[in-house]
Amino acid sequence: MVEIDLDELAKKIAARLLPPLTSALSNELQAALQPVVDELDKLIELMATDQSLATESWIESLLYSVMSKEMQMDRNVLDEKNV
């Protein structure tokens, strides 16, 4: 009878499969987050040039919106990893 060490087998499988999956996920996340980063760069430029109260209020609400979308994307990625 052949005895199989399931822990060792799981480690070997993880060592082979996780790096490609992780790099693919990283590229996917980077592509998904690039528009967010671009929008944040635009907002930072606006904040640097125009300090009026109306602009600050508008930018602040937009920043909260962008941040909440980014956190939701992070949650979705974590959910996908845990499935």
Would you give an account of this structure?
With 83 residues, the chain is mainly alpha-helical. Helix content is 89%, strand content 0%. It contains 2 helices and no strands. Helix 1 runs antiparallel to helix 2. It is rod-shaped and about 75 Å long. The mean pLDDT is 71. This is Rx_N domain-containing protein.
Topology, element by element:
Layout: H1 6-49, H2 53-82
Helix pairs in contact: 1-2
The biggest beta sheet reads: none
Roughly what fraction of the amino acids lie in strands?
Answer: under 5%
- DSSP strand count: 0
Distinct helical segment count: 2
Question: What is the terminal-to-terminal distance?
Answer: 34 Å
Structural class of the helices, strands and pairings? mainly alpha
Report a brief summary of the structure.
With about 80 residues, this protein is an all-alpha fold.
Features:
mainly alpha; about 80 residues; 2 helices; Rx_N domain-containing protein
